[in-house]
Amino acid sequence: MVFDALRAIDVLRQDPRIDQDRIAIAGESNGGRFAIIAGSMEPKISGIIGISTSGYDTESQIKNLRDESLIRFYRSIDPDSYLASIPPARFVMLHSLNDTIIPVMEAERTFQKAKEPKQFYTIATGGHGFSEGMIDPLENELKLMLK
Length: 147
What we know:
CATH topology: Rossmann fold
Largest sheet: 4 strands, parallel
Order of helices and strands: HEHEHHEHEH
Number of helices: 6
Radius of gyration: 15 Å
Number of domains: 1
CATH class: Alpha Beta
Oligomer: single chain
Number of strands: 4
Distance between the termini: 28 Å
C-alpha cells in the first residue's frame, strides 16, 4: 500500500496540469500510517496529513525481543520509524478526542516524535476518522503546504 501511494505521486507528477512542487499526501487510520511512510520516502512532497492515526510505538514493544529479523520487520511497518525523514515537508495530524479505535494519546505520542515543521489538532467532534470539525484546520493546512 505504501508502494501504491508512491506510485500515485508518480502518476500525479506526470500530469502537466499538476504542479509537481505542490503535492501533499493524506490518509485516515491505517491509510494515515501508509501516508506517513510513503511521504517520508518522497523527498519532494509538500506535506503529510494523518487523520485518526498513529505509529505503533515499536521501540517500547520490542525491548525483550532478541530476533534481529523480527525487530527490523516491526520497525519497517511502524510509521514512527520514518518520522525523522519527513522534514522539510510539513507534518500534520488531526485527531478526535472521542476516537475509541486509536486513542488520542497514541496519536500525540507519534506527534511528539516528529520533527518540525509540524502541527497537531485535537477535534471535539466525531469519533474515529474524518469529521466535520476537521474541515477548517485541514483547509488551512493545505493552504500552507501547497502555497
